[in-house]
Amino acid sequence: MEMAKQDFKNNLPHQTGGIYLLDGGAETTMIFHENLELAHFAAFVLVNTSDGREALKRYFRNHANVAVRNHVGFIFETPTWRASADWGEMLGYDAKSLAQVNRDAVELLEDIRDEYAGTQSRFLMSGCIGPRGDGYTISLAMSAAEAQAYHTPQVKTLAQAGVDMVSAITMTYPDEAIGVVRAAQSAQVPVVISFTVETDGWLPSGHTIGEAIEIVDTATGDGPAYYMINCAHPTHFWDAITSGGAWVKRIGGLRANASRMSHAELDDAVELDEGNPLQLGQEYRQLRHIIPSINVMGGCCGTDHRHISAICDAITIDIAA
Fold this sequence. Notes:
Layout: H1 13-16, E1 20-21, H2 26-32, H3 50-70, E2 73-77, H4 85-90, H5 95-114, E3 123-129, H6 144-160, E4 165-171, H7 174-187, E5 191-195, H8 209-220, E6 226-230, H9 234-242, E7 251-256, H10 263-268, H11 277-290, E8 296-299, H12 305-320
Parallel strand pairs: 1-2, 1-8, 2-3, 3-4, 4-5, 5-6, 6-7, 7-8
């Protein structure tokens, strides 16, 4: 039975409330648990092989099952973090084949979503946008206009493929985030911006999280539906978001690492640091006590469905109470 297609663009997590889960670290799971090679950390190439598609299906089913068991929502995030022009060219994809793999990624997750028709969980589809450069450093700083031009093809393709929203993950500086937001506004698709920070809680650009959010909001008319933080351990940004400020209310989601390693240490690591799933769950719970607007929760490097389950268990204790 195919799940009827619905338009959720006006019923996103920040509008409806309730808990929504995300997946964990797809790329690290594929490399370390599925033993698959990912050149340039690009998971989108898996969409083009039968083994890759099956691995992605197992991965997303494991996460969606956590949501179904706990009667909470789930956001399918397409494995397209690297599926933009520069990365595609390095992997042998031209504009046409890159657009097709973005569409195929949406279709793959739609097929998985259809399997959960009739459950009590609510499912959304998000098209994942990654940085033009590295997710940890700024190798090529673009103006907002340059960033809009670069990201528009992928944003437009994902929007036309029927995603409910797009999410720009691991943004390292405000101008690129502004460009993504403007591309999404032009494509008339809701957009989420997720910044990454170093161990000191500052973006690689040297901006604080609050400064970055205020810069993007000012430039785009409060364009993002909400903001997230990803690819950092909660202790790395704890002080920043507990210090207060109006911008804190704009944070609606987290995709933290379970590892306390810095980005440089993660780059050099030859073994996966999975951290402590139970401890990570408790840290999410504490952060939600401080920032109740956080209702979208997933993981990043080194996390998988076990971490997401621990996070869900920790936060639903408060809901049950």
